[in-house]
Design a protein that fits this description.
There is one protein chain. With 369 residues, the protein is of the alpha/beta class. The chain has 2 domains: 167 residues, 3-Layer(aba) Sandwich (D-Maltodextrin-Binding Protein, domain 2); 115 residues, 3-Layer(aba) Sandwich (D-Maltodextrin-Binding Protein, domain 2). It is 52% helix and 14% strand. The chain has 13 helices and 11 strands. The chain has a 6-stranded mixed sheet, with helices on both faces. Helix 7 links the parallel strand 6 and strand 7. The longest helix is centred in the C-terminal third of the chain and has 35 residues.
Amino acid sequence: MHRRTFLKTATAVTAATAAAATVSSPAVSQNLRKWRMVTTWPKNLPGLGTGAQYFADQVTRCSGGRLTVQLFSSGEIVPAFESIDAVKSGTVEMGHGCPYYWKGKAAAAEFVSNFPFGLTAQEYNAWYHFGGGDKLCDELYADAFGCKFLVCGNTGVQHPGWSRKEVNSLADFQGLKIRMPGLGGEVMKRLGATVVNLPGSEVPTALASGTIDWAEWNNPYGEASMGFWRHAKYYYATGWHEPGTCLELFVNKASWDSLEDDLKAIVEQCAFSTTQVMLSEFQARSGPVLDQFINKHGVIIKKLSDEQIKKLGSTAAEVLTEITGRDAMAKKVFDSMNKFRGEQKAYSDVAEADFLRARALDYSWPAAS
């Protein structure tokens, strides 16, 4: 190569390299992040697992890849009930679960989930966004778990569960082995049931083997893939124990504080949209699934009587009073939610409840095509 040609080539390469460095430097300064999110759910579990995946995908997409969230289901990094510890320690940056799983670490977490005879899903969202719930949840999770809290899903009303045995009275719960978490489980203990705490991935096997007699999990769509109907033909109502259960996103506090404001806003909005999408999917899918349970699989719907429900209500009141009497933060959260419940009850009764009662009356109506 001639000297003059070499110098021209070298000059061109140097200029191109400098130009490339100039172009790529903003990408470097963007501080791209890759976060891991653990869940308490089996992989692709309808509603819960898929809702967590929706959140992870939305954050990655909406941030343009500046914050990539990779989801790990229960057991892939840590067992379900160790998720909050993994996030607190910084082993992973974030997690998705249900607050009542952490009642052994902070009693108030049970109330954050919701409580028996408590708030509907829409009432819960209203409390969280307009009743001071967001600040209380943040206070609890920062102090107890070193985490930022965000509502990230809701199941709506849950069924009390599937039973291998027919239960016709509250006395029939004596000695019954029941999987029911949270405050509902505490109520069942008062009625003589043996409450077994199991993560979702273990519930179908436990019901099939007879390790438990009664399995409480979710709503029809959320339970469709669990196959409970194969082992328990009795499906109970009314859903007194979980009227609108909040699902949570918990983020390591130091990791959260490290985010730019626009990324925080993206995470917040993706959690908000996940709540709407999850609740809407549960509503949309549960009707057809319930029809399949009854007409295809021979499931028998059993409803608790008003007298039984009133006894459950008074027992729940005893449990709530005892827990709030010995834990100041639990009392603080419950007092806020219970006040809001009282303010909303009269309105919900003359709006939602009266409409549903009217819609259920017997009158002529066009058949669905």
